[in-house]
């Protein structure tokens, strides 16, 4: 039996969506502008970027968000943020602001849900250690680049350029007071793939990391809004840093206060504009929060992985990486058993991925390690590599 929409409902939905589209800002990304490598004809109710969100939440690495570190690793506390919580919060914050600005919230959701798919085990600490590991092969690892690579070069999910570009450009470790597309923003998949190739050797500069849509620009700052206050809240919950230890600022003390203040400020400074901006006071206050967070959390002993000093964790990541690198250059037994079946359900896409990367074992080995959860990396090391 074939299920089809009732004709009267179909007609009404077409009218309803047309009215919604008419309310979008002149600067919003329209579904009609969506670019894909393979054409997709959307259903009336499953529009271009809704299709991307649904594809993303069915990817293997989306499911693994729950097993990946946000800031604090291997804590026996279910209230501490995982990567899964973080991406949901980014999505909600960005959609709230984007809705007020008349932007395309379907596109915002897709970028937000996918933006951290490339994070390797143990968060930014693991990212630094994996990058140090792959440098010997002339390769570099950055989580935002890996997220974009995963969507477009590893799985054959036919994700739109607008989503992939927003993911690549989300890097939230450097905050600016204004975000907007520039002359270097992607206009095609050729532009996008050129950026990936530059990133693989560490030659992609900050000027190239402004998204081609305001939706992508908004997700980039929403990423920051989602973690600066929550990281403080988590540190306090673990008994590391009381909230009173931080310097007073105009954005507030508690996570919800910071989110609310920054959301209002961005709406005030961006409404009807072709950019996403922070006011001077909010920008300076946010920089102050960053400075305190780095001192009290990110560069302190509180972010150390329990039971695994940095040197030990580095040795583990190196050992697992080298195990797969060797396997990829010999018989691929481990790769075929522990990686190939878990990439993507469409065999043709997986075969194409391996064929395109036949000469790049360093890339595939990186894809494998980056795709592991925290506990799985340790388990693999103890059961396979170390043994």
Walkthrough of the structure:
The chain has 387 residues and is mainly alpha-helical. It folds into two domains: 276 residues, Hypothetical protein af1432, CATH 1.10.3210.10; 76 residues, no CATH class. 57% of the residues lie in helices and 1% in strands. The protein contains 17 helices and two strands. A two-stranded antiparallel ribbon has the order 1-2. Helix 2 runs parallel beside helix 5, helix 4 crosses helix 10 and helix 5 crosses helix 8. The longest helix has 24 residues. It is globular, with a radius of gyration of 21 Å. 44% of the residues are buried.
The order of strands across the largest sheet is 1-2
**Based on the structure given, which CATH architecture of the largest domain is correct?**
Orthogonal Bundle
Radius of gyration over alpha carbons? 21 Å
Quaternary state of this entry equals single chain
Which of globular, elongated, flat, extended, rod-shaped describes the shape? Answer: globular
**Contiguous runs where pLDDT drops below 50 for at least 5 residues:** none
Please describe the biggest sheet, giving its number of strands, its sense, and whether it closes into a barrel.
Answer: 2 strands, antiparallel
Number of E-type strands: 2
């Amino acid at each position: 039996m074939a299920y089809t929409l009732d004709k009267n409902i179909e007609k009404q939905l077409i009218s309803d969506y047309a009215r919604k589209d008419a309310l979008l800002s002149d600067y919003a990304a329209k579904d009609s502008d969506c670019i894909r490598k393979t054409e997709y004809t959307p259903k009336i109710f499953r529009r271009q970027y809704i299709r991307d969100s649904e594809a993303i939440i069915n990817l293997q690495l989306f499911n693994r968000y729950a097993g990946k570190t946000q800031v604090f690793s291997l804590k026996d506390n279910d209230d501490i943020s995982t990567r899964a919580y973080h991406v949901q919060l980014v999505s909600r914050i960005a959609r709230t602001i984007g809705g007020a600005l008349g932007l395309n919230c379907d596109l915002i959701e897709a970028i937000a849900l996918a933006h951290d798919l490339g994070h390797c085990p143990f968060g930014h600490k693991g990212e630094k250690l994996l990058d140090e590991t792959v440098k010997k092969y002339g390769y570099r690892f950055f989580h935002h680049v890996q997220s974009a690579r995963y969507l477009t070069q590893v799985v054959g999910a036919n994700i739109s350029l607008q989503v992939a570009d927003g993911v690549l450009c989300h890097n939230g470790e450097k905050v600016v007071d204004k975000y907007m597309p520039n002359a270097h923003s992607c206009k095609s998949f050729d532009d996008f793939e050129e950026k990936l190739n530059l990133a693989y050797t560490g030659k992609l500069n900050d000027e190239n990391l402004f998204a081609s849509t305001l939706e992508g620009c908004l997700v980039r700052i929403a990423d920051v809004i989602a973690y600066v206050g929550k990281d403080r809240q988590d540190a306090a919950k673990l008994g590391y840093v009381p909230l009173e230890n931080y310097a007073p600022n105009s954005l507030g003390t508690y996570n919800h206060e910071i989110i609310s203040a920054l959301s209002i400020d961005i709406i005030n400074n961006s409404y009807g504009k072709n950019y996403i901006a922070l006011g001077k006071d909010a920008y300076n206050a946010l920089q102050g929060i960053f400075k305190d967070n780095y001192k009290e959390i990110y560069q302190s002993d509180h972010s150390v992985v329990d039971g695994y000093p940095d040197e030990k964790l580095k040795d583990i990541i190196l050992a697992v990486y080298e195990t797969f690198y060797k396997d990829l250059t010999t018989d691929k037994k481990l790769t075929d058993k522990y990686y190939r079946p878990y990439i993507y359900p469409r065999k043709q896409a997986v075969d194409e991925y391996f064929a395109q990367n036949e000469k790049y074992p360093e890339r595939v080995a990186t894809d494998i390690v980056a795709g592991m959860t925290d506990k799985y990396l340790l388990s693999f090391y103890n059961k396979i590599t170390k043994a």
